[in-house]
Design goal:
With 536 residues, the chain is an alpha+beta fold. The protein contains 19 helices and nine strands. β1 (86-88) and β2 (91-96) form a beta hairpin. Bound molecules: protoporphyrin IX containing FE.
């Protein structure tokens, strides 16, 4: 075979190609990285951050003038976006008002966004992040979540606690019935007190097997101790996720510039003052063998053991988790009741529909019970509509991401705080027709196909209990408490606006989600007298 020698030109060409390949090989990773960087999705839109402090100056300004949620929702509307990014210190806070994007966070990437921030308030309330809601992702959260979901709030436990729930529903009717006796034309009832009192009673009964820490009141109302207890719960709640500046600039912690730390510590001390003696005494009773059969949720927690037969929960864990149970249970149902009644009283036809339903399904010869709930779609639609329009908090508790992720074409860095907007989802004009109107009938559309109205909304069209790993394990109990309050008060009493008022003033309190003024209304019994004695 004849070998053809390379010409100089050919040799040069081969050399050139080889050098090009070699250069490509050497610099390929760098070029690829550059290309990838150019393609990498950006952060969601939002106000331009300042160096180091980010958007904290805007946050401080709006805290003084209106509220942080008002600022966030206003700029998101102006930008016409369902997801945004604010930088507070070096934390990326990601508010979401679009249900589809919300589902990407809590369904598709649920595992990534299942942690929580370590804030000042959550640390104080949970005695160093020992509890379920306030613990970041990790073994402590797994343990406490299992205790709550499988022991405290399981279906079986719910059935076990049935009689206690009935007792408190009856006490609510008795308490309001006693208020009716104050005048011929009915009695004045403060529905804020009645609803918060019912929720506080319920949780004290389920956890400690007692309604009162002190004597209570002769009319069935709250005594000083119960009022102080419920006030501490609401004070804690107001500060849990209140965009405390030092949560974003940790070097300011300890200075307590906004005074939040002192307030939260004092509120926690009030809860501890009532809870701790009962908890410590009960633990001793179990140790001494004086108690060995659970009577309430405190007993359940004390009696849990690990694989070696040792107590599963420490005294501190029990104390912290009980504080959290109180905080988790009282606010949502009572807030919904007060707003729901205010809205219904301004729409007499809606109120009448719910009452007619109760008369048709339950009648007037007995009090409505939990087993009636499946048939009370109108009543439940009123409660669900209230959760949509008047959520207790503007956002859900922050979910923190454990790694960098892409969501909805946006880059969400590790350690971002994702806050799903209860207001923004529930009042999203792209989802809801006339979003600012109270129209419970919108939830009844599928009832003729046999569907039941429920308060949970896993599709995130509104945000009641959330979903996924961090979703609320108290859906059944929370729904029962809410529906029972609506149903018993609608069935048991005729409700009227005060004579000097034309309608209920629906103004919201400044910077708080409740009605500006407690709802005062006139109640008159509407059932035969013997039915009320069944409750007493
Ligand atoms: C109508 C009543 C209630 C509503 C609307 C409600 C709503 C919520 C919401 C929105 C969350 C946060 C979900 C998230 O971060 O994505 C939550 C979490 C939680 N709720 Fe509820 N809740 C109610 C009642 C209760 C009750 C009665 C209990 C227990 C006694 C309870 C215990 C919890 C716990 C332990 C968590 C934390 C879950 C976790 O972080 O792993 N809730 N709830």
């Amino acid at each position: 075979m004849e070998i053809i020698p390379f010409t100089n030109m050919q040799s040069f060409s081969i050399l050139l190609v080889s050098i090009t390949f070699a250069l490509c090989y050497i610099f390929k990773p760098k070029w690829q990285a550059k290309l990838q960087k150019a393609k990498q999705p950006s952060l969601p839109p939002g106000p331009k951050p300042w160096p180091i402090v980010g958007n904290l100056p805007e946050l401080i300004k709006c805290k003084r003038k209106t509220s942080v949620s008002h600022w966030i929702h206003t700029f998101m509307k102006e930008m016409d976006t369902g997801i945004a990014c604010i930088r507070l210190g070096n934390v990326h806070v990601i508010p979401v008002t679009c249900p589809e994007i919300g589902l990407e966070f809590l369904r598709k990437h649920d595992a990534v966004f299942a942690s929580r921030p370590l804030t000042m308030a959550s640390g104080v309330l949970s005695k160093g992040h020992l509890t379920t809601i306030f613990s970041p992702l990790g073994d402590q959260w797994k343990k406490m979540r299992r205790v709550m979901a499988s022991e405290v709030l399981s279906q079986e436990r719910h059935r076990w606690l049935y009689e206690k729930r009935v007792e408190e529903a009856n006490n609510l009717v008795c308490y309001v019935h006693n208020q009716c006796r104050s005048g011929d034309g009915g009695g004045l009832v403060n529905l804020r007190v009645a609803s918060r009192h019912y929720c506080g009673n319920m949780m004290r009964k389920l956890v400690f097997n007692r309604r009162y820490f002190g004597e209570g009141k002769a009319d069935g109302g709250p005594g000083f101790e119960e009022e102080e207890h419920v006030k501490a719960i609401f004070t804690s709640l107001a500060h849990v996720y209140s965009f405390c500046i030092s949560d974003y600039l940790p070097f300011l912690r300890g200075l307590d510039l906004e005074g939040h730390e002192k307030i939260v510590e004092e509120a926690t001390m009030v809860m501890d003052k009532y809870h701790s003696p009962i908890i410590e005494d009960r633990i001793q009773q179990w140790r001494d063998g004086k108690t060995n059969e659970p009577q309430d949720l405190l007993d359940v927690m004390i009696s849990l053991t690990d694989d070696n037969g040792a107590p599963l929960l420490s005294t501190n864990e029990i104390k912290a988790q009980i504080n959290e149970i109180m905080i988790a249970s009282v606010d949502n149902p009572s807030n919904a009741l007060e707003w729901g009644f205010a809205e219904m009283l301004n729409r007499p036809e809606t109120l009448q529909k719910a009452i007619d339903e109760l008369d048709n399904i339950v009648g007037r010869d007995r009090l409505v019970q939990e087993y009636d709930f499946s048939q009370l779609n109108n009543v439940k639609a009123c409660a669900r509509e209230t959760f949509r329009l008047h959520p207790i908090a503007p956002f859900n508790p922050s979910h923190v991401s454990v790694c960098d992720t892409i969501v909805g074409d946006y880059f969400i860095p590790k350690d971002s705080h994702v806050i799903l907007s209860r207001e923004g989802l529930g009042q999203n004009p792209k989802v809801w027709d006339k979003p600012y109107e109270f129209k419970p009938e919108r939830h009844l559309q599928n009832c003729n196909k046999g569907e039941e109205v429920v308060l949970a909304e896993p599709g995130l069209q509104l945000f009641t209990f959330g979903r996924g790993r961090r979703g609320c394990p108290g859906v059944v109990l929370g729904s029962c408490m809410t529906i029972m309050m609506f149903a018993r008060l609608l069935q048991g009493f005729e409700w009227n606006i005060l004579t000097h008022q034309e309608t209920i003033d629906l103004s919201q309190g400044k910077g708080v989600p409740s009605l500006a003024k407690p709802l005062l209304v006139v109640a008159k019994p509407r059932l035969p007298p013997n039915v009320y004695s069944l409750a007493g």
